[in-house]
Design a protein that fits this description.
By secondary structure, the protein is mostly helical. About 70% of the residues lie in helices and about 0% in strands. It has helices at about 10-20, 25-30, 40-45, 55-65, 70-90, 95-105, 110-125, 130-140, 145-160, 165-175, 180-190, 195-210, 215-225, 230-245, 245-255. It is globular and about 65 Å long. InterPro entries: TPR-like_helical_dom_sf (IPR011990).
């Protein structure tokens, strides 16, 4: 999905690096500055909008895109943002570059621009599954379910071995209350991306949602040993074992 974490970090942890004489430290801090609270973000990143190095000015502008900029910093931000826009155009020949443009567009509430960039990402690299997934997510946020389905189907046609696209289509079917059909796609996503425990978790959870909890538990016991990270699957196994009042199965999951 086209988004960034909303987790925040204390300003006092980052400020020494934002003002450091070493350019690489200032650059790294400008990028991490996105994790500051909005007020602290403008306060501490705005000086970097006038840094002598373009890369740092661009990184600061990138971190400030979704922040309300005060009038005193607006001119500096506008200049740095223009540099950011031009810099993003350098990589626009790649699908990933277009997706980065779409992220920026969404952060300034330009949904039409984001949609156009994502369509270009797909056109440029039709085998880049992230483009389809993000465009589908954009349409989902706009409640345009028919377009979600169309984009994901196009993606699966062009990328038949993509577990991520198959899984995303399964989630779409769940939202359309087509749980039984979704299970088929979740099962296929497990086959295509056998190392992702999230796909197995969702597959079993959906199966339980149809009322077939015993089959869900049986499938979970079959799948769980295949994954190195079993924590989420173990938690689900304990829940299903308790639900079915099966002490043997509960003990089995406790001991994995």
């Amino acid at each position: 999905m086209l988004s960034y974490t909303t987790q925040s970090i204390p300003a006092n942890k980052l400020v020494p690096y934002l003002t450091n004489s070493e350019a690489l430290l200032r650059l790294s801090a400008a990028k991490v500055g996105l994790l500051l609270s909005p007020v602290e973000r403008e306060k501490h990143l705005s000086p970097l909008l006038n840094d002598k190095l373009k890369a740092i000015r661009v990184a600061a502008a990138r971190s400030l895109v979704s922040t309300t900029i005060s009038s005193e910093n607006q001119t500096s931000f506008s200049k740095a943002f223009e540099e950011l826009t031009k810099a993003s155009e350098v990589n626009s020949w790649r699908g990933e570059g277009r997706i980065n443009q779409a992220v920026i567009a969404l952060e300034v509430n330009d949904t039409l621009g984001a949609e156009a960039s994502l369509k270009q990402a797909i056109k440029i690299e039709p085998y880049f599954d992230v483009g389809y997934i993000n465009l589908a997510d954009l349409y989902r946020s706009q409640q345009r379910s028919s377009l979600v389905s169309s984009v994901l189907r196009q993606g699966m046609k062009n990328n038949p071995l993509s577990g991520a696209l198959t899984y995303s289509y399964g989630l779409h079917l769940v939202r359309q209350q087509k749980l039984a059909k979704a299970i088929e796609y979740f099962a296929k996503s497990i086959h295509l991306a056998s190392q992702n425990p999230q796909y197995a978790y969702t597959y079993v959870l959906a199966m339980d949602g149809t009322g077939d909890s015993q089959k869900a538990l049986t499938e979970l016991k079959r799948l769980t040993p295949k994954y190195s990270n079993k924590s989420q699957l173990k938690e689900l196994g304990l829940y299903l074992s308790q639900k079915l009042r099966s002490k043997a199965d509960y003990d089995w999951f406790m001991n994995i």
